[in-house]
């Protein structure tokens, strides 16, 4: 019986594998397996009805040997410290693989944001920032959006931090609205980055993307923009899904039209000319490229053998279990791991930070060009190491990320 795959157990297992392959000593492995700092706060706010709401918040800072901590903040009712710790660790490797000068962090508040008014969300956000402000800053820890947070949330964070410091500091947070220093192209960056990796993988594996069938599990921000970017390069999007289920259309569908249907009906299902499918069925559809862009642990030992795609590009965090990894590798299905495939978001966050530091705003064309260059370089770095080690791409990516962080720590040394 396979052990339960929590985000933290998977992250620690991956670190152990990479450490062993890299020949890291036990001290270095132990250092990397624990965050430098975990902050837990109680967030008390006045609700619209006059009562007091109390919510638990956290911020985990993993390692900053290569630069300031960087990572999203999610508002989610069931979030745990272990989950946030795992995500902070993955952010450390992700930034190192993308070769951007950040370390990994993650934050979260245990709240069902759908049950709060906009005013309550603003008070919650500002109170949360005030409680961790001493550990934030443009050269210390730079938050970004994540699940159920958005550009508006980041605007509140920037304003709160700036008010407490006494002057405007746009570089204190990324993922902001463009009106206050946000970067063009940030919203679609993660989805576009996934497709840049798909392009490189197709080139390496001799897969023609013109009219290639793409199925995408998840139709949120990442899934939608991956669908649009896939269509732009000539792929046919044959299936998408959200939390309510999915739709399948062998002749292809138009992402923008499906989004309009979803906004009207609150579901992608029952879209004209398409057959309704479950999220589980979508994974097993006949397609060339499968993009899991929803939840973790979707491809497991139970369904990995039924995957018919030639390529799997992980837009979500941890959608494939370790046992399923082995099955896909044995089936010679090209798997682009999450810490490489979905690094487009943090890459453009880095661009936003650089623009803020110099008080510039680059045109969209420049952002997209630099994103493609970064993603292509990272992809080729991972492939080169995986081929050298005769391993799968996930192992190559982990070795690259963990190795770069470990080398930075070695060069810096331990103080005092």
Polypeptide structure, described:
The protein is an alpha/beta fold. Among the domains are: 35-169, Leucine Dehydrogenase, chain A, domain 1 (Rossmann fold, 3-Layer(aba) Sandwich), CATH 3.40.50.10860; 189-341, NAD(P)-binding Rossmann-like Domain (Rossmann fold, 3-Layer(aba) Sandwich), CATH 3.40.50. 45% of the residues lie in helices and 17% in strands. The chain has 14 helices and twelve strands. The protein has a seven-stranded mixed beta sheet, with helices on both faces. Strand 1 (37-46) and strand 2 (52-63) form a beta hairpin. Helix 1 packs across helix 14 (393-412), helix 3 crosses helix 14 (393-412) and helix 6 crosses helix 12. The chain is globular and about 55 Å long. The model has no long low-confidence stretch (mean pLDDT 95).
Secondary-structure blueprint of this entry?
Layout: H1 7-22, H2 26-32, E1 37-46, E2 52-63, E3 69-75, H3 81-97, E4 103-109, H4 118-132, E5 141-145, H5 151-165, H6 189-205, E6 213-217, H7 221-232, E7 236-242, E8 245-248, H8 255-265, E9 275-277, H9 279-283, E10 289-292, E11 311-313, H10 322-330, E12 334-336, H11 338-341, H12 344-357, H13 364-389, H14 393-412
Parallel strand pairs: 3-4, 3-5, 6-7, 6-10, 10-11, 11-12
Antiparallel strand pairs: 1-2, 2-4, 7-8, 8-9
Helix pairs in contact: 1-3, 1-14, 3-14, 4-5, 6-7, 6-12, 6-13, 12-13, 13-14
Short recap of the structure:
The chain has 416 residues and is α/β, with parallel strands linked by helices. It contains 14 helices and twelve strands.
């Amino acid at each position: 019986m396979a052990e339960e795959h929590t985000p933290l157990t998977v992250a620690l297992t991956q670190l152990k594998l990479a450490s062993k392959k890299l020949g890291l000593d036990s001290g270095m492995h132990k250092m990397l397996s624990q965050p430098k700092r975990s902050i837990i706060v109680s967030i008390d706010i006045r609700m619209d009805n006059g009562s007091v709401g109390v919510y638990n918040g956290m911020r985990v800072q993993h390692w900053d040997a290569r630069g300031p901590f960087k990572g999203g903040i999610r508002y989610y009712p069931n979030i745990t410290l272990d989950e946030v710790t795992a995500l902070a660790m993955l952010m450390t490797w992700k930034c190192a693989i993308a070769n951007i000068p950040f370390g990994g962090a993650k934050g979260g508040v245990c709240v069902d944001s759908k049950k709060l008014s906009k005013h309550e969300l603003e008070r919650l956000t500002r109170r949360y920032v005030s409680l961790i402000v001493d550990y934030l800053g443009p050269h210390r820890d730079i938050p970004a959006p994540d699940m159920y947070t958005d550009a508006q949330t980041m605007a509140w964070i920037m304003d709160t931090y700036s008010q407490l410091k006494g002057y405007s500091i746009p570089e204190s947070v990324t993922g902001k609205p463009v009106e206050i220093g946000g970067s063009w192209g940030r919203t679609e960056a993660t989805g576009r980055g996934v497709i840049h990796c798909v392009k490189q993988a197709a080139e390496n594996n001799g897969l023609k993307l013109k009219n290639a069938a793409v199925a995408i599990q998840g139709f949120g921000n990442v899934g939608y923009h991956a669908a649009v970017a896939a269509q732009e390069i000539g792929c046919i999007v044959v299936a998408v899904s959200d939390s309510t289920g999915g739709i399948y259309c062998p002749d292809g569908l138009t992402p923008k039209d499906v989004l309009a249907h979803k906004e009207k009906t609150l579901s992608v299902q029952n879209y004209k000319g398409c057959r309704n499918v479950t999220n589980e069925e979508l994974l097993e559809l006949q397609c060339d490229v499968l993009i899991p862009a929803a939840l973790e642990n979707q491809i497991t030992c139970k369904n990995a053998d039924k995957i018919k795609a030639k390529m799997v590009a992980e837009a979500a965090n941890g959608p494939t279990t370790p046992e399923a990894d082995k099955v896909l590798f044995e089936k010679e299905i090209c798997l682009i791991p999450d810490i490489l495939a979905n690094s487009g978001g943090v890459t453009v966050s880095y661009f936003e930070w650089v623009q803020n530091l110099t008080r510039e705003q680059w045109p969209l064309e420049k952002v997209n060009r630099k994103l493609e260059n970064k993603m292509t370089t990272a992809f080729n770095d991972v492939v080169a190491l995986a081929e050298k080690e005769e391993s799968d791409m996930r192992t190559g990516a982990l070795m690259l990320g963990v190795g770069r962080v470990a080398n930075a720590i070695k060069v810096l040394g331990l103080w005092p």
